[in-house]
Amino acid sequence: MFFEIKKFFQKNKYIFFKRDKKIDNKNKIIIFILRIPLYVPALFSFIIIQLLYLLFKIKIRVGVLRADKFGHLSLETELYFCEKIKKDNKYNFDIFFNDGYISNKYLFNLIKLKINYLPNLFLRELYVLCTFYNNKKFIANRRFGAEDYENLLDQTPQQINISKDIIDESFQVLEKVGFKKKQKIVCIHIRDDLYSGDNSFNRHRNISSMNNYNKTILYLIKKKYFVVRVGKLHKKKFNIKSENFLDYPFFKFNSEQLDMFLAAKCDFCISTGSGFDALARMFRKPVLYTNFSSYGDTAFGKKHMIIYKKFMNKKKKKLSITDLHYENFFQIDNSSEILDKKLFFIENSDIEILNATKDFINYKKNKKKFNKKYELFDKKFKSFYMKNYKKKFNINKLKSVNIAKLCPSFLNKMV
After folding, report:
1. Phi and psi (nearest 5°) for 190?
2. Which of 84, 121, 203, 354 has the fewest CB within 10 Å, making it most exposed?
């Protein structure tokens, strides 16, 4: 029994502690120790839940409302609502708790209105027990988190809405800096070293050459878009002076409500893979992903497009998508593993990002069919991706779904 508990702890240690970046590891351990007595009422509750299901088929499930990351709070929760609609899970009685950092309190409060939310008295301990005894049917969280592997967003209406008052107030704030009410908004999020602090696990996802987005921003401004570089923390300002550009992280009137407004009202989003693009997808907005760092990862849905960073091995040879697949590099998404395998990244150039943006705008407007070469390669890429996705999540059967299309201009960079 001891060895089973030890193995379980090593595999699932994140569920034992508060998800709060403001609390250091030492204090997290102290909180965990102080809460050990709460496993007694949690155990009684666990037994009652089992009995209710066995005797009366009443299923009570416990879930963690992940609020520490914007992407989980927005997209994972939206997918939970969509899943309940699509799979008719209305007979489950789900209880959610959160005891960590809240990335956006405005969105958090909107979600609380739509779920059964309780304070974390001993719900974390109950959640741990349900997980330990492998009773996944009593866990309310989605197995696939924020992954829309069934294209639920394409099949269900938007579940979270912002109020008219917030929309009106946000328009007024933006009009002060030059925004015109009928203008189309494009949001751009470029993650740098300040995005998640000194995080060695996913440092490779950060972007060092933010100026490679200058040409794209200027192109969009010329096309009369109102361009907003979004995010909370960034190292440097863009050196772009235009009434149609807002460097939002350095804007004195930024707010959680305005974050929501920008995602809800943008025409599309350009991202490097972050919580903000998940918020945009929650509002059913198309996203162009640039500088994506794992070829085994993508966005599900028919509205999106993507280009990747390029891999280079220790011999300075650029690796094609076929090389990555057959050398088992396809699913690498860990900075330590990348260093161990002596791989290097080349970020997208300014021309690659600009051409991808032009591809994306054309695709968004026309949904045009592509040439035979592109369609064959896109089919091959999708096949690679689905095989690796099945392996990643240990799924034997997974129907073919829509995933982000590769930008045609980037095709020759990958073969």
Report:
1. -125, 110
2. 121
Does this model's pTM top 0.85? My answer is: yes
Contact 265, 371 (CB under 8 A): no
Structure tokens at 11: 């595999």
Q: What is the CA radius of gyration of the chain?
A: 23
Q: Which two tokens stand for residue 248?
A: 């939002």
| Assigned token pair, 69 | 């990351």
Per DSSP, helices labelled H in 151-247 are: 152-155, 164-175, 214-222
303, amino acid identity: K
- Contact in structure between 151 and 402 (CB atoms under 8 Å): yes
- Phi/psi at 238 (nearest 5 deg)? -80, 140
Phi, psi at 165, each rounded to 5°: -60, -45
Say how far apart CA 122 and CA 144 lie, in whole Å. Answer: 25
> Reduced to 3 states, what is the DSSP secondary structure of residue 371?
coil
Integer CA distances (angstroms), 408 to 352, 357, 412, 413, in order = 11, 11, 8, 10
Rounded distance between C-alpha atoms, residue 131 and residue 125, angstroms? 10
Coil, strand or helix at 30: helix
Burial class of residue 400 in the structure, from the number of CB atoms within 10 Å of its CB (0-12 exposed, 13-18 middle, 19+ buried): exposed
The rounded distance, in Å, linking the Cα atoms of 275 and 72 is 7
* Residue count (the chain): 415
Mean pLDDT (the chain, rounded): 84
pLDDT tens digits, 20-48: 667 777 888 888 888 999 999 999 999 99
What's the one-letter identity of residue 140? A
The three-point CA angle 369-185-276 to 5° equals 85
Q: Dump pLDDT digits (tens) for 65-115.
A: 999 889 999 999 999 999 988 876 656 899 999 977 899 999 999 999 999
CB 362 within 8 A of CB 408: no
From start to end of 254-395, where are the E strands? Answer: 266-271, 287-292, 305-308, 310-312, 344-346
d(CA 148, CA 122): 30
Burial of 216 (0-12, 13-18, 19+ CB in 10 A): buried
Of 184, 381, 198, 372, the C-alpha closest to 292 is 381
